[in-house]
Inverse folding.
């Protein structure tokens, strides 16, 4: 479970990028995080993962405060950033072993998971190549493989399907569903409203740092007394903000 309690983030000029955000992401659910460009999605995720400091409020992951207990909190989540351009000077296998070392994944389990996941994502033949030679989609796959390698309880995914081919995107969506069905937490941001509508149990919509809606799609339709698609409701909610 992820609990975001009255979180505020200021940027230059005292602008509030996030404004008193309250959000709970429960276990056993896939929660989709939606908002137009600049709404505060990536800023929120970077505070959740400890990349950005929190100006006001608190964030806990399975009870661990990300600022007061960063080591404990970071052990239990896997994070896919919105841009997979990192560790470019490492070979694919070096990166995965680096992640395995950080999270103390035993050698036998590590070997088995690397073989299985890289074959599933069709990057097993590229593990000896430097990540800087990878395409965007391959970089996304190696980052996702690193997240799955240590089997964290909480998945925090920022636009995880961007750049993936249809087969890999389908596999990742299936993995997300399986992970949530085991009682774990999956939180992901996306611009793909159809994917969110198809996959998510709960939807959170944010704009200008404020939460506009949080609930199931059925609750959304009931709240707005509408049988419209998620896309139509999303556009109406964010258009006047």
């Amino acid at each position: 479970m992820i609990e975001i309690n009255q979180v505020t983030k200021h940027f230059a000029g005292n602008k509030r990028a996030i404004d008193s955000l309250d959000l709970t992401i429960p276990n056993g659910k896939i929660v989709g995080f939606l908002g137009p460009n600049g709404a505060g999605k990536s800023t929120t995720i970077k505070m959740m993962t400890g990349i950005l400091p929190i100006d006001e409020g608190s964030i806990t992951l399975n009870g661990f405060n990300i600022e007061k207990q960063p080591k404990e909190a970071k052990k239990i989540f896997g994070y896919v950033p919105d841009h997979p351009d990192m560790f470019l000077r490492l070979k694919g296998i070096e990166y995965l072993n680096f992640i395995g070392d950080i999270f103390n994944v035993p050698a036998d389990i590590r070997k088995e998971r690397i073989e299985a996941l890289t074959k599933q994502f069709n990057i097993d033949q590229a593990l000896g190549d430097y990540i800087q030679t990878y395409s965007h989609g391959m970089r996304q796959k190696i980052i996702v493989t690193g997240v799955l390698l240590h089997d964290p309880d909480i998945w925090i995914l920022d636009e995880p399907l961007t750049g993936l081919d249809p087969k890999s995107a389908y596999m990742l969506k299936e993995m997300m569903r399986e992970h949530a069905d085991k009682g774990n937490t999956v939180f992901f941001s996306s611009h793909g409203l159809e994917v969110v509508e198809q996959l998510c149990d709960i939807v959170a919509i944010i704009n200008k740092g404020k939460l506009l809606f949080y609930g199931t799609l059925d609750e959304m339709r009931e709240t707005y007394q509408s049988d419209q698609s998620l896309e139509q409701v999303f556009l109406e909610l964010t258009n006047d903000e």
